[in-house]
Amino acid sequence: MADTKQVISPFLGEHDHSHCEEQAMESALAECTKQGLKLTKVRQQVLEIIWAQHHPIGAYDVLQKLQQAGHKPAPPTAYRALEFLVSAKLIHRIESLNSYIGCPSPNANHQCQFYICTECEDIAEVNNTAVSDALRLSAQALGFESREPVIEVHGVCKRCLESA
Ligand SMILES: [Zn+2]
Ligand SMILES: [Zn+2]
Known about the structure:
Helix 2 (about 40-50) crosses helix 4. The chain has helices at about 15-35, 40-50, 60-70, 75-85, 130-140, 160-164; strands at about 5, 90-95, 100, 115, 125-130, 150-155. The protein has 6 helices and 6 strands; from the N terminus they run E-H-H-H-H-E-E-E-E-H-E-H.
């Protein structure tokens, strides 16, 4: 049976965001310790900025918010911090929006699919292993080594549909 886990569900009602931000920082720290990675100050600040909202945020906006908060890292430092967070899978890059979003269940090895609401820009991250397995098998049949499959589905979320 496929293991379908909806790890974030901004579409399914309200939640206490300050709590989820706190929890995200905790699990990010735990994951870094587990992976033997160092969450430097800049990396942590970037992660906090990304988690301070539920919407995807672009690299330039992250940089601006860092500066507004009184931090003055050189742009390459901030961009490298973003790259680090993506490779540690603490955040994900949403290719179709050219932006970033926090991962609610950071883990070195997970593949996910994104459902992106074009009305409110909320994003649901789903780990459906049936989808990732199907992609891997198709790649194998082609003799293709799949590295970073990107599944981003644009549409309208339940909340927006109901309030339309
Ligand atoms: Zn994730
Ligand atoms: Zn929506």
